[in-house]
Every structure is written in C-alpha cells, then in structure tokens.
Design goal:
Layout lengths: L2 E3 L17 E3 H14 L15 H4 L7 H13 L4 E12 L2 E10 L2 E6 L1
Antiparallel strand pairs: 1-2, 3-4, 4-5
C-alpha cells in the first residue's frame, strides 16, 4: 500500500477530522506523487539533483521544446513508485502557457493529472 501526506487544492498539507496530518493511500497517493514529480525542476532537490524535469532547458528557453519536455516528463512519471505505464500524454502551448495532461496506469488503477 502506498501512503503519502495529503495536500489540498493549494498544494498545502492539512489536518484531518481527527486532528492529525491528512494522509492519502493507493491510487490517490500515486497520482499525488506523480503530480509532485511532474512539478519538480531538475536540480531543485538538494539530495537528488539529477531528478526532475529540466524546465529551463525545455520550456523557459524562449522557444518551448514540447517533444523534449514530454520525454523528460514521461521519464519522471515512470520513476514514481506504483506507476506502471503512461497511457496518454498530451501537451499544448497556448498564450505562452505550456500545459499537459497525463493518463497514468498504476498498480491501483488509472488516473489523470494536469499541469
């Protein structure tokens, strides 16, 4: 069973009804971990500087390279414990904003993340 600290819609930890830090398990936990992995910039974590998406090189260089971004995003999502397959990944650039939607197969079922 996968269990992680839960976050709310603002990506903040919160207290559950029993007064403890909220937790999520199974599919919601893997999907939350995948969403966090997708948001992690390469070099951001001091103990895992090789993990994350190289946003500076693929997105913020003045001309987004969506093909490279997708490749790195797939690699990062597949590194999340419990993820078994990326069944669909689409990216779009509109009004200078890069967005993505990923359909992810996990050991608990299928879920979707957006960013």
């Amino acid at each position: 069973m996968t269990t992680v600290l839960a976050v709310d819609e603002n990506n903040d930890l919160f207290i559950d009804a029993e007064g403890a830090l909220a937790l999520v398990s199974d599919l919601p936990a893997v999907m939350q971990a995948a969403a966090h992995a997708a948001k992690t910039q390469l070099g951001e974590m001091i103990y895992a500087v090789d993990d994350g998406v190289p946003n500076f090189d693929t997105i913020w260089n003045g001309s987004p390279n969506t093909t490279q971004f997708e490749a790195f995003l797939r690699r990062v999502l597949m590194s999340v414990e419990g993820v078994t397959e990326i069944t669909e990944l689409t990216t779009a650039v509109a009004d200078h904003v890069l967005s993505y939607q990923a359909t992810i197969k996990t050991i608990y079922g299928i879920g979707v993340i957006n960013g």
